[in-house]
Amino acid sequence: MTRLPQITEVYLDNSATSPVFPEVLRLMEKVMQEEYGNPSSLHRRGSGAHRIMEGARQTLAGLLCVSSEEIIFTSGGTEANNLAVLGLARRHRRRGNHLITSLIEHPSVLEPFQQLENEGFHVTYLPPDERGLIDPETAAEAVTPETILASIMHINNEIGSLQPIHRLSRALKSRNPRLIFHVDAVQSFGKIPLLPGEAGVDALSLSAHKFHGPRGVGALYLRRGIKLEPLSRGGGQERGLRAGTENTPGVAGMALAARLCHEEQQQKTERLSFLKARFLAAVEQAHPQVKVNGPRNGKEAAPHILNLSFPGLKGELILHALEEAHVYISTASACHAHKKGPSHVLQALKLDQPHLEGAIRISLSLQNTLEQIDYAAAKLIRVVQELS
Ligand SMILES: Cc1ncc(COP(=O)(O)O)c(C=O)c1O
Fold first, then answer.
1. In terms of CB atoms within 10 Å, which of 7, 130, 209, 381 comes out highest?
2. Ligand 1 centre from 183 Cα, in Å?
3. Do residues 336 and 47 make contact, with C-beta atoms less than 8 angstroms apart?
4. From ligand 1's centre to the CA of 28, what distance in Å?
5. 244-256 residue pLDDT tens
6. Is 300 left (phi over 0), alpha (psi -120 to 50) or beta?
7. Is any ligand 1 atom within 6 A of the Cβ of residue 160?
């Protein structure tokens, strides 16, 4: 038997959250200690903090090729999604009461849509195909003159399906040019480029902790001229669209993490795809019965997310057996882990019960080495053998 290298831990749950870059941590500490003023204060301490906020805004805007005033800082992906869905639908209600989303969105998108149904809106939930992809033609057919908003995620957090956002935007807007198109790019930002201007996206959500930034900070891009009803009111921060004293260290950390992820992004994405393919090849060779839930590779697949089912085995048992070997994965998304019942995403793929129960998610980052990937694959192969 080949000897495994000495490995103390393999973290393969990066879609739940990712470790903060050391440079980001250092910057945040410095900002917390030195630029502790409130950005709204008129004295020197306030203007220092304000400058940091505006520098970070420019960095993010530059990476998205948009203007600074189109970036609204939030407390994370959940708030950005809530603000976009609730804020846009409520603000534009006079133009129509029809909304479109998909069945496989993150709960921070789906639950606001359910709330809007309670408020009298009519929502169409688009079904994915068996790989988790939304067909632009089907999306276009759902559009009516009453449709004011569509929200479709870029990369699905559970199965890694990567939606054809450019084609979806064209298809939706060809039927109704005034429709506002929001994209949850929480899982793709820093890995797969998506420029709102080029892609026909009017609003786009980000979350720092998915790309090695801090937790509790995110952003919403909102195209200039599009009006939105705020969810929080108070001190008028973020042009009155998101009241609350700004998280200056978090925002600074997010901008630095974003910049670092975008350096040589293409090579990094290729590296992630390579690691993912290597892991899958090893597992498939040992256990040909494994099923890949979602696209396996190619331009429809996220480079870092792999969802696998081992029919007859429970995903949770695999997770805990791997934990014993210090390999950390998940069964579905982190937000599902404490909910009863199978994931809504896997159900939308129409998986049968054994595949639903046997699903695990592996999500990689560039901090994973080749040795770690080989180690984790070997451990998974052994765990599946032992549990079968
Ligand atoms: C696709 C997607 N959208 C939104 C969120 C929520 O982001 P946050 O954890 O910053 O609230 C997540 C987090 O798991 C996600 O994966």
1. 209
2. 12
3. no
4. 22
5. 999 999 999 999 9
6. alpha
7. no
